[in-house]
Design a protein that fits this description.
heterodimer, A: 855 residues, mainly beta, five-stranded antiparallel beta sheet, B: 193 residues, Growth Hormone, Chain: A, 5 helices, 66% helix, elongated, Type1_Cytokine_Rcpt_Type2 (chain A)
Chain lengths: 855, 193
């Protein structure tokens, strides 16, 4: 006995010894440092205590009658259960008895504990259990136990639960165990004899920290930190030894963690509880017990049990349990204040009239008749839901008023307790009904002046206003000056207007009624008077917003029945209108008939006891649109000298899809563009001045908020006008004639002088003979100069300053050749001889030989 | 996985025409079964992280003492018997797996159902092919689920057994294709003669 511990002590204090021992067996050593340390410490403590105890027992026997007897070790639900008995005489002890226990796995101490037995429990059998970190099948588990009483200890008694021996197949433990998320699990693999261990691992599981160790020659352990739940499939621990493979399945989950239990009653005969369901273990769902009765087969998170519900608070307890544990949820409540009513049943409708109906129902739970109830009636008229709330004890019917005649409705009801409101019941089944018919509502009547006629118009009644099928309308009008004379006409539905020829100088009252199968509506009347119109009123512009018009006006004290806003397109013959109460001085109008690019006239009338009075008039577009090209009709041009006027026809409002602020004219020739503008929207012409006599393209645009648009083009060739040309020619001719005449007169009167100057008399040769010429007369010459030279027969032509060439007294003209002008002059001056080919000068006959010589 | 629909020749085995036509239909069904069994095994391996190389111990679950000298018709009759046992095994696998994990609706479970139905169809086909006045063939599963499975210790053992069953199905579907091919060839030759 004493030798074995001493050997162990040597090994315990010498890790090298231990490691070497395994290495000698060619095995790998995997025990963790922590386990090593714990094992060594426990071994030291146990062995020292054993040595010491042995000595004490030997020297001074303690309480031998209390030593464990019939000690048994067993595996109960993976726990090591130790049971032992004590001698009956031990029951006489007065103080508590201590048992010291030491657990050894494969002969290595791994756990030590003291187990105290109180005096009143001494004498019977005892048990102690312990959860081993290693499955009990994997290794032998031994327990040493001894008693200690008042510092006297008994001898050690040892019991062993052997592990499983190797079999022909690989064995892995624990099998099919459920682990809690976050726990550390140890699996072992028992390898068949003769087989060599290969590997051991966890598959079908997310990465998990693991450590492998050898328990004994044929048993290996895998320790894994299970950090994740297995959700849809269990994890597998697989062990391989050469070609053999074995394994076990493991499920990882959470213990129940359900919350928020809340209970109520519907019928005072049962309780119904709800809670928030926590995570479930894969393949092992949590089971529930309410009031200690199973909730199996009931929907998830909901359970009800039969129980008589009385006044007063009590605990309603739900137990949630799975393989990893159980929790208890408690809801403390007085369920008489938590009544979740069943929906009203057997809905009926009675006393149906045109505008009233009675709806009734019954209760399936008798106790409801005694409760102060509040009920909501949801009334649906085909487009909207209206909710009406009623309260009463045991409420079972309601009367609905103000319904639309000849109208289909459906109604449903939900109720709840009024005093201790908990929650609304479900809605009852809907019940439908149809109200009885009635006379139509009064018509909305207005007037509109078209082509010197007064158009009386009214709005067609909608379904909820007609209260039955409309047959026709009756229009009566009376001249107020002749009140006794009433004119009447019937208009068949669906016509909803009639044109009346009313005198503009008279006042009339027009009344219109609608008729259906139940009778005629109250008459709607309108006064017609010339003061309703004011053609002189200035129309201001208005811009549309959001597909309609928003307009406001100054309040008027005479507006006893409010205002009427009326609008119509400039090109249309009908108008729409809106009646505004006296308190409002603004309105936003929309119409399905509104179109972009159409100009509307909007008028605000004061509604008075008599005829409506025009207050304001505006015009505008819901949205302006760009005016299309070629808007200008009959575009034409007119030239005045160098000015051109472009004209067009007046543009009608119908053609204007936007406000026109002015016009612009572009005069475009080959190289220049001239722009002429006007900001007069009424203009029908533009004039471009000082144009050249070229070919022009004239384009006219309208100026709008959308920019320059409505482009229309016309082309024109400008030229000097014929009248001017004729005038110019005549003036030139007259001037020239006058000038010639003047020169002629001057020349005539001064002819002698001129002759003397330019053609002095040629002295006659002094000859003798018969043929002597008569004596010449020498004219008077004021500036007479005596001839200084004898004229020669041949002389060079002389060119005047204007390009004419003079030959003796003859004026010789030539065709003017511009390009030859200067050279010709030069040649004339510089060249002594001229050729007729260059200058077409009439030849002068010299001599009579038939030959001539150009000079 | 997208559901696939394949055309199976001879959809009405009872109304099959000539011998060659009927054996051809049976052969086509056997080949399709083999393909589906192989796919089922692959899905199982993926689901349970079993290595493709791993072969469990235990040998054949379904074994028949086929005489190498027996005629092709006798071989087909033996095959029919083996397929009945295979049908019993797949029935058992489905029952045990649903008992353990409930009725799931994954690819594996879908293919498992396909294989069972295809196997039943092949049994009807071979019955129509081989049955005579003297030879009465059954098409019901020939396996008691309690025989082997109750002895299994743990879920992991059930998985291993399922793995063996699936390997068995692949083997016998392949064997069926080969045997029926042989029969088809012989029937064709007879018709030619």
């Amino acid at each position: 006995m004493t030798q074995v511990p001493s050997l162990k002590i040597l090994c315990i204090f010498s890790p090298v010894c231990t490691v070497n021992a395994y290495r000698n067996k060619n095995k790998t050593f995997f025990i963790t440092d922590i386990v090593d340390t714990m094992t060594r410490l426990l071994t030291v403590m146990v062995l020292f205590s054993q040595v010491f105890a042995t000595r004490v027992t030997a020297d001074k026997p303690g309480a031998p009658q209390c030593e464990p007897q019939n000690m048994l070790l067993s595996n109960v639900s993976r726990e090591l259960l130790v049971t032992w008995e004590v001698h009956a005489s031990c029951a006489s002890l007065r103080d508590q008895l201590i048992y010291e226990l030491v657990v050894l796995v494969e002969d290595k101490p791994v756990h030590q504990e003291e187990f105290a037995v109180m005096a009143d429990h001494i004498g019977s059998s005892h048990s102690w259990s312990w959860m081993s970190f290693l499955p009990l099948e994997c290794a032998s588990h031994s327990v040493q136990i001894r008693s200690r009483y008042t510092n006297q200890t008994g001898p050690w008694t040892t019991g062993t639960l052997p592990g499983l021996e190797p079999s022909a197949e690989i064995q892995v433990y624990p099998q099919d165990h459920v682990f809690e998320v976050g726990s550390r699990a140890t699996f072992c693999c028992i390898v068949p004899l003769g087989k060599t261990f290969s590997t051991m691992f966890l598959s079908n599981y997310r990465d998990a920290p693991s450590n492998m160790s050898m328990v004994n020659n044929h048993t290996y352990a895998l320790t894994v930190d299970l950090l994740w739940p297995t959700l849809v499939s269990d994890a597998d621990v697989k062990c391989k030894a050469q070609m053999d493979e074995g394994g076990s399945c493991a499920i990882v989950g959470y213990p129940p963690s359900d919350t928020d239990l809340q209970c109520e009653t519907r019928d005072f005969q049962s309780v119904q509880c709800f809670w928030t369901v926590g995570p479930q273990i894969f393949s092992d769902p949590t089971t529930y017990w309410l009031l200690e009765k199973s909730c199996n087969g009931q929907p998830k998170g909901k359970c009800s049990q039969k129980v008589k519900v009385n006044n007063g608070e009590r605990n309603w307890t739900l137990i949630a349990r799975n393989v990893l544990g159980s929790i208890e949820l408690v809801d403390e409540a007085d369920l008489t204040k938590r009544v979740y009513m069943y929906a009203p049943a057997h809905m009926t409708v009675s006393a149906v009239s045109a505008r009233n109906v009675t709806i009734a129902w019954t209760w399936t739970v008798q106790q409801y008749n005694l409760l102060n109830l509040t009920c909501q009636i949801n009334l649906y008229d085909g487009t909207t839901n209206i909710q009406i709330e009623m309260c009463d004890i045991g409420l079972q019917s309601v009367v609905l008023n103000g319904l639309i005649p000849n109208w289909s409705y459906s109604a449903k009801v939900q109720c709840a307790t009024e005093t201790d409101f908990w929650k609304w019941s479900e809605w009852s089944k809907s019940i439908s009904f149809h109200t009885k018919g009635d006379i139509p509502d009064a018509l909305d009547v207005w007037m509109h002046n078209v082509n010197h006629q007064t158009l009386i118009i009214w709005k067609l009644l909608e379904d909820h206003q007609s209260h039955g099928h409309i047959i026709d309308y009756e229009v009566t009008w009376t001249d107020l000056a002749k009140a006794e004379q009433e004119n009447k006409i019937c208009v068949v539905h669906p016509t909803h207007s009639i044109a009346l020829n009313l005198s503009t100088f008279q006042k009339y009252i027009v009344k219109v009624t609608a008729r259906n199968t139940y009778g005629s509506s109250d008459p709607s009347q309108i006064f017609i008077s010339s003061q309703s119109q004011d053609p002189e009123m200035i129309t201001s512009r208005i811009n549309g917003t959001g597909g309609g018009f928003s307009l406001s006006w100054a309040a008027n004290v005479t507006a006893s029945c409010g205002y009427i806003v009326d609008w119509y397109p400039v090109s249309g013959n009908s108008s729409e209108w809106l009646k505004v109460p006296p308190s409002n001085t603004s309105a936003t109008i929309y119409s399905k008939n509104f179109k972009d690019g159409v100009r509307y006239i909007l008028s605000v009338y004061i509604c008075t006891e008599e005829a409506p009075v025009l207050l304001e008039k505006r015009e505008g577009y819901v949205k302006e649109q760009r005016i299309p090209d070629n808007m200008f009709n009959n575009l034409r041009w007119q030239q005045h000298a160098s000015d051109v006027t472009i004209s067009w026809d007046q543009i009608s409002l119908k053609e204007q899809s936007a406000h026109i602020y002015g016009y612009v004219l572009y005069c475009i020739d080959e190289s220049t563009v001239l722009r002429v503008t006007t900001d007069d929207p009424e203009a029908t012409s533009l004039t471009a001045a000082k144009l050249k006599m070229y070919s022009y393209t004239f384009t006219v645009h309208a100026l709008t908020s959308e920019g320059e648009c409505g482009l229309t083009t016309i082309n024109a060739n400008l030229s000097i006008q014929t009248d001017d040309l004729v005038s110019a020619i005549i003036i030139s001719l007259v001037t020239a004639f006058t000038l010639v005449l003047l020169i002629t007169v001057v020349c005539y009167r001064s002819w002698a002088c001129i002759k003397q100057k330019i053609y002095p008399p040629i002295p006659e040769p002094v000859l003798t003979g018969k043929w002597l010429s008569p004596k010449g007369v020498v004219p008077y010459c004021p500036k007479e100069e005596l001839p200084v030279a004898v004229p020669k027969l041949h002389s060079l032509p002389r060119m005047s300053n204007d390009g004419y060439i003079c030959q003796r007294d003859q004026l010789i003209t030539s065709t003017k050749i511009p390009e030859l002008d200067l050279p010709l002059k030069k040649n004339i001056l510089q060249t002594s001889s001229l050729t007729s080919t260059r200058l077409n000068i009439p030849s002068v006959w010299v001599g009579n030989s038939g030959e001539y010589y150009p000079v | 996985m997208a559901e696939q629909q394949e055309h199976i020749p001879g959809d009405e085995p009872e109304q099959a025409g000539s011998g060659a036509g009927r054996t051809g239909s049976a052969l086509a069904v056997a080949r399709l079964l083999h393909r589906e069994c192989t796919h089922l095994l692959q899905l199982f391996r993926e689901k349970e992280s079993f290595s493709k190389d791993y072969t469990p111990d235990g040998g054949r679950i379904v074994s028949l003492s086929a005489d190498s000298e027996s005629s092709t018709v006798e071989q087909v009759l033996l095959l029919h018997s083996a397929l009945r046992q295979c049908l019993g095994l797949i029935h058992c696998v489905i029952a045990k797996e649903e008992e353990e994990w409930g009725e799931l609706e994954g690819d594996y479970e879908s293919m498992r159902k396909n294989v069972r139905q295809r196997l039943e169809y092949l049994l009807h086909t071979t019955k129509a092919l081989m049955e005579t006045d003297k030879t009465i063939l059954e098409v019901t599963p020939d396996h008691q689920c309690t025989e082997e499975v109750d002895g299994l210790a743990g879920v992991f053992a059930l998985k291993m057994w399922t793995y063996r069953v699936l390997l068995e199905l692949v083997h016998w579907a392949d064997h069926a294709a080969q045997t029926l091919h042989k029969l088809h060839s012989e029937t064709g030759e007879e018709n030619d003669n």
